[in-house]
Specification:
Immunoglobulin-like, eight-stranded parallel sheet, 587 residues, 23% strand
């Protein structure tokens, strides 16, 4: 089992007991991503020109500072990790704090952030975190905190030969400079080990510029006395980077990264296509690469659903040949003791009558020729609930899904109701990404959620391709699709990628509360039943703030995210945790 052997090799080579959610990540993008010149013909726009609504939320006015603070040469401030911090962002007076607070059950990750605003140039700023020390003397080692820095990248403006520089990626860097009058954001991911005892812990975050006084912050961690339920919804990403030659350890790191960020499955195509030949009247089917990928997915825990597009059609192989190929894929997968993937054909099948007809034809061949195999299809329009009737087991809708879609899918209990695109912010809108994977999934009663795209360095293969920059390719998005960019030593997360894990965990908090409420409702204890009623009322009232009516001028998730702040959702999670603690008496 190559996947398991490789995983053990690079995990044991890392720091002792370092969470695999840290060791699977890469450190930095290649330096040339930041140093290469902008090609001729491209126009830079300010954030005010590119996104006026966002720009209005960026504070650029410094608060009054005491002379002793100014003499230090910089200020440290704390704001919610989901609020974008640009180089020009200035702190509010209320954000000038030396305390960061997070809470989490054991075996989970939780995000935090702080920023440094330079009043004069700062050289070689280093950030380190001590061990956590608990009230009762317990310790959580510093290897359970990953310290990273948020970096900005030039990003193509949709469908234009223009770009704006904005926060995109979270890198593992050593000492870094901060220019005078600029702000740099630092990202902390805390992992609570399974062995951690409930209670209050504190660590010290040290900010140490060369030639300037050091600062410290207290990182307070509350370890909660319960475990989160597994996500009741499935989660996946379109993972197209495997069409490029990658080292085996890099493949494995990407898969572990998906699992550690809450993904339960994945969508695979490029790189796993069957190799086909006609030999003596029969079709030879080689799926070595697919079997290898399925084995790795099993070993890391990506199993539900694994969606596979084999890119095979009846036009090339005939109806019988098409079915024969898929049957042989199933036979080899089952023979290897692996789970048969969910099959799909085509993409966004309702965009034209021709595509609908072609997809229906092939899905019918699959349904009739392989009756035990599950079938996935994705559609764009909210009104496509009945398209391909009886040929689909998992129907995924685009960002436009709304309450009409939800009502239509209630009448189709034989199908799972999914979305495959939420805000389509491509990792650059963390609040929207968090809302989508958590509260929106629960409000829509989705069976699962996916997103385009985890990473796809193939893109327009006829042109030279640089997957970390936005200027090498034509097309509306350039290279700004990736939720994780390819570093030399592993995946580099975006802000939205980290937000996905937080959103999925929001859904898990909700599921944990609903389980606790159901347990309380089954007792004869009146107080516990009343507590369960109060918990459900709070939950439903908060979720009711999310409007599912059609949003003709934007995506529903984008519109609804504008109603919230990240701090509000953090507070919601805290209140859910409080209700869970009250209901624990039902055990």
């Amino acid at each position: 089992m190559l996947g398991a052997v490789l995983m053990m090799a690079w995990m044991t080579a890392a720091l002792p007991e370092a969470p695999r959610g840290f060791t699977c990540l890469g450190t930095t993008l290649p330096d040339e991503v930041y140093t290469a010149p902008i090609p001729e013909g491209w126009t830079e726009k300010t954030i005010a020109e590119a996104e006026p609504a966002l720009a209005r939320r960026i504070n650029t006015v410094m608060p009054d500072l005491a002379p002793s603070v100014r003499a230090k040469g910089y200020v440290v401030f704390v704001r919610s990790w989901g609020d974008l911090v640009f180089p020009q962002t200035a702190p509010l007076a209320s954000e000038l704090s030396d305390s960061i607070r997070v809470a989490s059950p054991p075996e989970e990750y939780v995000a935090a952030s702080f920023s440094v605003r330079a009043l004069r140039r700062l050289d070689d700023v280093r950030v380190t975190v001590s061990d956590f020390v608990g009230e009762g003397g317990g310790r959580i080692g510093s290897e359970h905190v990953d310290v990273r820095v948020v970096r900005c990248l030039p990003t193509k403006i949709f469908n234009k030969q223009e770009y704006v520089t904005r926060p995109r990626v979270i890198e593992k860097r050593g000492a870094m400079d901060v220019d005078e009058g600029a702000t740099r954001q630092y990202w902390l991911t805390v992992h609570v080990p399974a062995s951690a005892k409930p209670g209050a812990y504190a660590a010290t975050v040290a900010v140490e510029p060369r030639g300037a006084p050091a600062s410290t912050l207290t990182l307070d961690l509350g370890v909660l006395p319960f475990r989160l339920r597994p996500s009741p919804a499935g989660h996946y990403m379109y993972a197209y980077m495997f069409g490029n030659p990658l080292r085996e350890d890099i493949i494995l790191k990407n898969l572990v990264n998906m699992r550690e960020h809450g993904m339960t499955g994945g969508y695979f195509a490029f790189g796993q296509f069957p190799k086909l030949k006609r030999e003596k009247g029969r079709i030879s089917v080689d799926i070595t690469s697919l079997l290898s990928m399925l084995e790795k997915c099993r070993d890391v825990g990506l199993v539900d659903p694994i969606i596979f597009n084999p890119a095979v059609g009846a036009d090339d192989w005939g109806d019988d040949g098409f079915v024969e190929i898929l049957k042989e894929i199933v036979r080899q997968v089952e023979g290897a003791g692996l789970t048969v993937p969910v099959f799909t054909f085509g993409d966004e099948v309702d965009v034209s009558p021709e595509r609908t007809a072609t997809t229906a034809y092939h899905l019918r061949l699959i349904r009739e020729g392989l009756p035990g195999v599950r079938i996935y299809a994705n559609v764009v329009s909210p009104s496509s609930a009945a398209l391909l009737d009886s040929l689909v087991d998992i129907r995924a809708f685009s960002s436009h899904a709304d309450e009409t879609t939800m009502r239509a899918m209630k009448n189709r209990p034989h199908e799972e109701f999914w979305m495959y695109s939420g805000p389509s912010g491509y990792g650059m809108a963390p609040l929207e990404d968090r809302l989508y994977r958590g509260l929106y999934v629960r409000r829509m009663n989705l069976s699962g959620a996916g997103e385009w795209v985890y990473q796809w360095p193939l893109r327009l293969r006829s042109e030279p391709d640089d997957p970390c920059r936005d200027f090498t390719l034509r097309g509306p998005h350039g290279n700004s699709w990736d939720y994780c960019l390819p570093g030399r030593d592993g995946p580099i997360p975006s802000l939205g990628w980290e937000a996905y894990r937080e959103g999925i965990n929001d859904g898990r908090y909700i599921a944990t509360l609903e389980e606790a409420a159901a347990r309380a409702e089954a007792t004869d204890d009146r107080a516990m039943r009343e507590a369960a009623s109060a918990a459900r009322t709070y939950l439903e009232r908060f979720l009711a703030r999310i409007d599912l009516s059609p949003a003709p001028s934007t995506f529903g998730t984008r519109r609804e995210a504008a109603k919230f702040t990240n701090a509000e959702i953090d507070a919601f999670r805290g209140e859910v945790a409080r209700h869970i603690l009250v209901l624990q008496g039902a055990r």
